[in-house]
Amino acid sequence: MNSKFHIAKRKYVYDIFASIFRTIFLIFFALAVLSPEGEEFTIEISITEFYLLIAAFVVAFVAQLIIYWLILRKHVFYDQEKSFVVEKGLFLKRKANIPYKNIHTISLKRRFFDLILGLSIIEIDTGTTASFKSEGRLVLDKDYAIVLKNYFETKKVDDSKVLPSPKDFVVGTSIKSDQNHLRWYQLLALAVMKQPFLQAMLIMVILILAAGSFVIQISEDASLDQNLIHLVYLCLSGIVVSTMTTMLYHLFKYFKYRYQIDQENVTYSYGLFKKVELKTPIRRINAVHLNQPLLFRIFGYYQLNLSVLGVGELSDGEQFKVESKAILPIAKLHQVKEVLEQIGFMTNAFDQEVAPNQFKHLNFVIFPMFFCIVLNFLPYFIFTIENFDFTIIIIIQVFVVLLVLIGSILSLKQHKIAFSSHEILFQRGSFTLMQTIIKKQRIQIISYKQGPILLIENIGNIAISYKDILGLIVMKSFNNDSFNIIKQSFLD
Predict the structure, then answer these.
(1) Which residues touch 159 (CB under 8 Å, ≥6 apart)?
(2) Structural domain count, the chain
(3) Per the domain annotation, does 51 fall within a domain?
(4) Which domain-ending residue is among 21, 54, 74?
(5) How many CB atoms lie within 10 A of CB 376?
(6) Looking at residue 462, which CATH number applies to its domain?
(7) Count of CB atoms situated within 10 Å of the CB of 176
(8) Gyration radius (Cα) of the chain, Å
(9) Which of 136, 258, 311, 354 could form a disulfide with 124 if both were Cys (CB 3.0 to 4.6 A apart)?
(10) Is residue 319 in a domain?
(11) Residues in a beta bridge with 443
(12) How far apart are alpha carbons 377 and 379 in whole angstroms?
């Protein structure tokens, strides 16, 4: 019978703190429920009741410690010839049998307290879409986690490998390349050049100016002319504080970001307070996303993301979140081309392309501008405020309308689909240019969708589903001839 190994006992420290906080919460909740009703009250307890309360606390705390210890001891793993087995659960037992040949992605993660305790979390994923969770998740000693990761990588090709024991293992030396990494100033630039940051700053400034203008004018003792400079200072302060906070966040999150590509795998790692290391086979990459936010385009930078099934996890609150898939968070074009060549994308030129040609100005420019203008003028027909200076509001509205106009024109010019012998490129976006390159064999469904307006125009939207979590791309306003060209290219 194969030996069963337990996860790291130091993980029990988390359980102790969880038991303390949970017990304190339960005691205070019980006191709140049993206390007399009223706006103000004083809890008075006798010595006997005080001792009973202490006893209840100790019993609840010890009971949780016992349950957590039993759960910890039931969390084991072992080798079963062709597969790796993970067992866990006390009242509800779960046994995951993971074939070595099906292991898709291996990731190592270290949270802040994991760094203090010398632990690592290893996640084993087979790339199934049935669940967002990894099939195997183990909390281990940080050195043993690296040994186990190396064991998974070699077990696929060498059946003679024996699962090392957490108590008796040899730490191997790994050679890491320092040439493919991001410097600290690149991480700071990445923080402010992302499109979401620019959008957040723009919305913040608009809200401060609009709300501040309204509050100042409805106040009897203030005037807009006297307080406008204070609104400007408030906007500048908000921008400076947000910029510094975002820069520090990116510096800590992507600290020592580095990637390495060999003949079979892509590996990248990063993090200061939470360390992440992920390794996935190149053959599992279904598509790549090449993004250029506005400032990226101005300064000639790109972001390259990978589309890989299984690169994700559920947080403690059972809320799905996707692991970072940016193999190049910020890079120049020559770096992007080098990585694409290494992972087998864009090996052939895109020799054919299609773009919207019927009612394109109506759908991409006129319709968005019509709804934008209506929404901007609608408040003036609904609300009437006497002696109100709308100067700042009107300036903001004109600015928003111009942004929508420029974005609509850019969206029209950049919307296209291109083909090569093995790949299809989908390009869309306005201020952020997004290009998705998908291997043809990874595309699952291509459909043609028409609503009431598109039926009248005799055009439709093309929806492309490919192998990824929520892997769907919608290309707007293509005629039936373009759809047939795309469909034929996909079938070929």
Answers:
(1) 82
(2) 2
(3) yes
(4) 74
(5) 17
(6) 2.30.29.30
(7) 10
(8) 29
(9) 136
(10) yes
(11) 466
(12) 6
Give percent of the chain with pLDDT exceeding 90.
Answer: 18
Side chain identity at residue 339, one-letter code: V
Amino acid 277 reads: E
391, 393, 395, 400 alpha-carbon torsion, rounded to 10°: -170
Which residue reads 């099934």 in tokens? Answer: 309
Residue found under tokens 């790796």? 84
> Could you report how far apart the first and last alpha carbons of the chain are, in Å?
51
Q: Is residue 25 part of a domain?
A: yes
User: pTM, whole model, 2 decimals?
Assistant: 0.69
Phi, psi of 193 (to 5 degrees): -95, -5
On the question of pLDDT at 172 being above 70, the answer is no
The residue range of the domain holding 326 is: 282-354+413-491
Which of 32-46, 230-244, 256-270 has the largest mean confidence? Answer: 230-244
Residue 107 CA, chain-centre distance (Å), reads 15
Q: What is the Cα–Cα distance from 418 to 486, expressed in whole angstroms?
A: 9
In this structure, is the dihedral angle defined by the CA atoms of residues 435, 437, 440 and 444, taken in order, positive or negative?
Answer: negative
Could you tell me if residue 139 is inside a domain? no
Nearest to 329 by CA among 138, 187, 221, 151: 187
* Cα 432 from Cα 195, distance rounded (Å): 7
What is the model's pLDDT at position 36?
58
Of 41, 74, 107, which one is at a domain's C-terminal end?
74
